[in-house]
Amino acid sequence: MSYDTPAPATAPPLGVGMVGYAFMGQAHSQGWRTVGRVFDLPLSPSMAAVCGRNATAVRAAAGRLGWAAAETDWRALVTRQDVQLVDICTPGDSHAEIAVAALEAGKHVLCEKPLANTVAEAEAMAAAARVARRNGQVAMVGFNYRRVPALALARHLVEQGRLGTVRHVRVSYLQDWLVDPDHPLEWRLRREHAGSGALGDLGAHAVDIAQHLVGSPLTGVSAQTETFVRERPLAGGHGDERGTVTVDDAALFTGRLASGALASFEVTRVAAGRKNALRVELNGTLGSLAFDLERLNELEFHDDTAAAAEAGFRRILVTEQDHPYLEAWWPPGHGLGYEHTFTHQARDLVRAIAAGTTPAPSFEDGLQVQRVLAAVEESAGKNSVHTLVEGSP
Ligand code: SOE
């Protein structure tokens, strides 16, 4: 008996070019490496080229991560013939320039969150995406947590009306990697590169997931922000040299959604012991949902229509074959992780490109989040805290 190698996939190719190869670039690479081997796709993504400024380092990254070629100039990457989709994984200060150039070069674009560092940049990106859409191109922003199966299930339950009218949205996103005052002043702590701190990094996810789950935008916010450690050692600096942190460590804000729901948000990178705790709770007239990214295969659901004696939060283990995204993975109970969200993101984007539909979250969605982030900063800047009189009860 002879065993033949299966025929190669017949789906037309989709060349992907990625800019940036640090943490997010590695996560996206994992998605591109996996997606066509796990899901049936109408197009066959190929990892054409990766781009970074340091020639030696980017060549090494290409080999390690599975990219066929390396470029040192993103302008060369976005005009390559074998690239149809540009995936942007750089710090926020270069998103707008790369995305607009890629769209103008006729490419589809996937851009990491937050979409940009300012509302003006995000507006320019959304405008370029609108023009490109008329030529059949698509643009998507990388809010990958929408693709956690448990959060996708949460969205389905809200859409099906299982919560009734959602009244409360409570989102916190807590990390602790900046508790150490000697953590260096890296790009994520500099406004000129990152736009803002925990707000843009974590708050962007929090705002997107709240608006997405409820299906309604925030219409106003009231905020406080704080930078607890104002000076940190210069990255790559010598001795005791310290520089000024120009972004927030933490942001707290409340908001109102167009649907009428009230929302509260807490995002911080100085919550000792919390590593990547994105927690979401929704309370509606018929039930509630709760989720914690540190237990990402679980969703808690309370059905308030059940008899009181039997009601209460119950844990849904989101690993069944008919749960979102699970049809292609492991048997029930075998759990997914953080990296799978990038595979799911790639799957949804490739399918949208093939179908000619606008993928979500679109650049318009990214722009809406950017407007919320700007409103939070504006509100925090006004510091409209109602000061209590000293000594009053
Ligand atoms: C760092 O705080 C970070 O990597 C974010 O930038 C990501 O978007 C988030 O998913 C995990 O934390």
Automatic annotation (TrEMBL):
InterPro entries, A to Z: Gfo/Idh/MocA-like_OxRdtase_N, Gfo/Idh/MocA_oxidrdct_glycsds, GFO_IDH_MocA-like_dom, NAD(P)-bd_dom_sf
Pfam families tied to this protein: GFO_IDH_MocA (PF01408), GFO_IDH_MocA_C3 (PF22725)
Record keyword Oxidoreductase present: yes
UniProt keywords, alphabetically: Oxidoreductase
Stretches assigned to the GFO/IDH/MocA-like oxidoreductase domain: 153-289
Domain Gfo/Idh/MocA-like oxidoreductase N-terminal: 15-142
Record carries keyword Oxidoreductase: yes
Domain of life: Bacteria
PANTHER family with a match to the protein in the record: BCDNA.GH03377
The name this protein goes by in its record: Gfo/Idh/MocA family oxidoreductase
